[in-house]
Design brief:
Radius of gyration: 20 Å
Number of domains: 2
CATH architecture of the largest domain: Alpha-Beta Barrel
Bound molecules: flavin mononucleotide
Strand order of the largest sheet: 1-2-3-5-6
CATH superfamily of the largest domain: Aldolase class I
Strand content: 5-15%
Number of helices: 10
Number of strands: 8
Largest sheet: 5 strands, parallel
């Protein structure tokens, strides 16, 4: 498929001897290097962090954890994290199956009697009124990802930003075809072929799938930027269902200002409901 699109695929050799980034020893060395910088917060996802990481987090900053189910929330709070991010299935990137609207109150109720840990809501939050809704449910704040992808400062290409504007929420699919674990990303012939084509060998487990996908998708981006229409079709990136709410590309400052005014408007709307009584 890539060759048909005129895309050059760079082959990656996997050496048995090379340490992999997920190797616990390598991860600890990366953490030590990271903590030489003034880090205020360290967030862990895809499982309970090892005790050494929580200790380092407590010494240098605040250890936080992303969770997608109430059971994960309980495990993380028991392990000692100080902030929980309850991330619903709407989110871009690796995500679980429970929606933000259900997960936030479920996580809050589950940890209530263990420890007083602030819960940030995540997944699908693209504006200030959604932020107000999450805080109305008891979240201490929100944690966002996809909304920043449609900003002038983001790492995304202009082509991907345009595809975000064109997409609806149903175009953000939860598939394994980029990392090997279910991760929400923009539907394209890349995701469709890996998931649904009878010729697909299926995704490799994490972290091997990224070795297949990352170089190939970088080539796709380059070919698309060079004007190759088939490569443009293939372009994909992690993004959540909130992509359906993207109407234009803004500056990051513009997003913050919009969040503030939308939050205020939402709170005023709710207050007006009380005034009417
Ligand atoms: C492009 C992209 C990359 C992400 N990478 C990571 C990551 O490396 N580690 C992680 O814990 N979460 C990652 N996430 C998830 C975000 O931290 C955040 O929880 C999520 O984007 C929130 O949902 P939203 O995208 O609907 O705002 C990523 C999300 C996106 C969109």
């Amino acid at each position: 498929m890539l060759e048909n699109a005129g895309v050059q695929v760079i082959e990656t050799e996997i050496s048995d001897e090379r340490q992999q980034p997920f190797d616990p020893e390598t991860a600890l060395r990366v953490l030590e290097a990271a903590f030489e910088h003034p880090i205020k917060l360290i967030a862990n996802a895809l499982g309970v962090p090892p005790p050494a990481m929580i200790e380092m987090g407590k010494k240098h900053g605040v250890p936080a954890a992303l969770v997608g189910a109430k059971e994960h929330a309980i495990r993380q709070v028991n392990a000692g994290v100080d902030i929980l991010v309850a991330q619903g299935t709407e989110a871009g990137g690796h995500c679980g199956e429970v929606a933000t609207m259900v997960l936030v109150p479920e996580a809050l109720a589950a940890i209530k009697n263990i420890r007083d840990v602030p819960v940030l809501a995540a997944g699908g939050i693209m504006n200030g009124s959604q932020m107000a809704a999450c805080m109305a449910m008891g979240a201490a704040g929100v944690w966002t990802g996809s909304v920043w992808l449609a900003t002038t400062e983001s790492e995304t290409s202009e082509i991907f930003r345009q595809k975000m504007i064109e997409a609806s929420s149903r175009d953000a699919v939860r598939v394994r075809s980029r990392t090997g674990k279910p991760a929400r990303q923009l539907r394209s012939p890349w995701t469709e072929s890996w998931e649904r084509s009878p010729e697909s060998p299926g995704a490799l487990p994490m972290p091997l799938m990224s070795l297949v996908s990352e170089n190939a998708l970088r080539s796709v981006e380059r070919a698309a930027a060079g004007g190759n229409d088939k490569a443009r079709d293939l372009v994909t990136y992690f993004v959540g269902q909130g992509v359906g709410l993207v109407e234009n590309v803004r500056s990051a400052t513009g997003v913050v200002q919009d969040f503030k005014s939308e939050f205020l408007e939402a709170v005023e709307r709710m207050n007006a409901l009380l005034d009417d009584e």
